[in-house]
């Protein structure tokens, strides 16, 4: 299988960046600021979106894990009647772009190695494209990607296969030459729908048993890719 692989399409949150280490701090800041410092209101709103402010933990069903920013914004508006949607999504994108990202593994050497093997690399995230680019730039790896798409880039969000198909169109590859790598069922369903081989990693919220029905292979993290592909 691996000898025909020419492209790798990565999810961002929970795949390139460790979900727990990155987004717990983001969620606390976001909800408290959104509630203008009222922690009681922040706790009530965050709970409706599947996040426990006191423990800093995400419920597995939380829309914050795999939902698009548009879906998160809609849920926030429902939890905060009267709030302006444009202002909410502006704040959402601002705090997301400014949140320090904890790399799942050191990205620059890993992605440089994969790129050095002639692989085409892409990112498909349900985050907006602007914050995604800010996170990749902060990690110093933007130049290694041929394709970076968010839910607002014109391909739709996952689990639909639009971004996966967009990566193939941008690189000239066919789906059978691409691995879709992600930490959620949304990522894997998207890749499968596009005809790609799917790789699950365990640096997000979902556990192996949840991902197994949708994954061709399960790896602990993306650092295991070179060995899986036979480069080490």
What can you tell me about this protein's structure?
The chain has 232 residues and is α/β, with parallel strands linked by helices. It has two domains: 2-18 and 103-228, HAD superfamily/HAD-like (Rossmann fold), CATH 3.40.50; 20-98, no CATH class. Helices cover 44% and strands 12% of the residues. The chain is built from eleven helices and eight strands. The protein has helices spanning 19-34, 39-48, 63-66, 69-79, 85-98, 107-116, 129-138, 162-171, 185-194, 208-211, 225-228; strands spanning 7-10, 51-52, 57-58, 120-124, 147-149, 178-182, 197-201, 217-219. The strands form two sheets. The protein has a six-stranded parallel β-sheet, with helices on both faces. α9 (185-194) links the parallel β6 (178-182) and β7. α1 runs antiparallel to α5 (85-98) and α4 (69-79) crosses α5. It is elongated and about 55 Å long. The mean pLDDT is 92.
Topology record:
Elements: E1 7-10, H1 19-34, H2 39-48, E2 51-52, E3 57-58, H3 63-66, H4 69-79, H5 85-98, H6 107-116, E4 120-124, H7 129-138, E5 147-149, H8 162-171, E6 178-182, H9 185-194, E7 197-201, H10 208-211, E8 217-219, H11 225-228
Parallel strand pairs: 1-4, 1-6, 4-5, 6-7, 7-8
Antiparallel strand pairs: 2-3
Helix pairs in contact: 1-2, 1-5, 4-5, 5-7
Q: CATH H-level name of the largest domain... which superfamily? A: HAD superfamily/HAD-like
Across the major sheet, the strand order is: 5-4-1-6-7-8
Our measurement of the CA-to-CA distance between the termini, rounded to an integer number of angstroms, reads 16 Å
| CATH fold-level name of the largest domain | Rossmann fold
Q: Provide the structure class.
A: alpha/beta
Show unreliable segments.
none
């Amino acid at each position: 299988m691996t000898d025909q692989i020419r492209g790798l399409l990565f999810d961002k949150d929970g795949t390139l960046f460790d979900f727990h280490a990155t987004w717990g701090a983001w969620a606390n800041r976001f909800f408290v600021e959104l509630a203008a410092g009222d922690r009681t209101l922040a706790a009530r709103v965050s709970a409706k979106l599947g996040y426990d402010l006191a423990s800093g933990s995400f419920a597995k069903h939380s829309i914050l894990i795999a939902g698009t920013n548009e879906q998160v914004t809609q849920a926030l508006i429902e939890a905060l009647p009267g709030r302006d949607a444009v202002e909410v999504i502006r704040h959402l994108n601002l705090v997301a772009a400014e949140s320090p990202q904890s790399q799942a593994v050191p990205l620059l050497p890993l992605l440089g190695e994969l790129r050095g093997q002639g692989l085409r690399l892409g990112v498909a995230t349900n985050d907006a494209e602007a914050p995604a680019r800010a996170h990749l730039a902060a990690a110093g790896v933007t130049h290694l990607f041929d394709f970076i798409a968010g839910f607002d880039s014109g391909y739709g969000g996952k689990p639909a296969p639009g971004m996966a198909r967009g990566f193939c169109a941008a690189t000239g590859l066919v789906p059978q030459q691409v691995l879709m790598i992600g930490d959620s069922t949304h990522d894997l369903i998207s890749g499968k729908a596009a005809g790609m081989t799917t790789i699950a990693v365990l640096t997000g919220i979902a556990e192996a048993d949840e991902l197994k029905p949708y994954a061709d292979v399960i790896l602990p993290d993306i650092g295991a890719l070179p060995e899986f592909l036979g480069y080490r």
